[in-house]
Write a structure and sequence with these properties.
By secondary structure, the chain is an all-alpha fold. 38% of the residues lie in helices and 0% in strands. Helix 2 crosses helix 4.
Length: 154
């Protein structure tokens, strides 16, 4: 994983826009244009792709610490800063909110893929009928006495 991948993952995880990244880099006196930042996040095959150097990532991380925690004189709560970022993200007008996932209760696999004849109708069962009845073993091979080539007279 290279610096570009780390920078992309941080940007997505923290929900940062390019202008916010510029502000974070400005906290540590590191200047980059919006176009240069866009080039960092491009696909590696793109003509304008730019490799993220150690200096850029180091300055971004140092600025991010100041941005989230604040300074000694003016400390901040990181959770409040992240909540503020989340609140600034515009919601699309036709965007439906995602329903919360509720897992369905687990079913018995035998019942779920049961007999096709039942058509979902459950028969009344008798507990005595569930008991296994002894099944007579069918002898497939005749019993043969082997002497292993020796004639025994007993």
């Amino acid at each position: 994983m290279n610096n570009n991948d780390i920078f992309k993952k941080l940007r997505v995880a923290l929900m940062l826009r390019d202008d916010q990244i510029i502000d974070i880099l400005a906290l540590v006196d590191f200047r980059m244009s919006k176009g240069e930042i866009g080039n960092l996040f491009r696909n590696a095959d793109h003509a304008d792709f730019m490799e993220c150097g150690d200096q850029v990532l180091r300055n971004f991380l140092n600025g991010l610490v100041i941005h989230l925690r604040g300074t000694k004189e003016n400390p901040k709560n990181p959770n409040e800063v992240l909540a503020q970022h989340k609140a600034e993200i515009p919601v699309k007008a036709n965007f439906a909110t995602r329903a919360e996932f509720k897992p369905s209760p687990k079913t018995d696999p035998k019942k779920a893929y049961g007999n096709a004849k039942s058509n979902g109708v459950k028969k009344a069962s008798n507990p005595k009928s569930r008991e296994k009845k002894p099944v007579a073993k069918i002898q497939v091979v005749e019993k043969v006495k082997f002497n292993n080539g020796k004639n025994k007279k007993s």
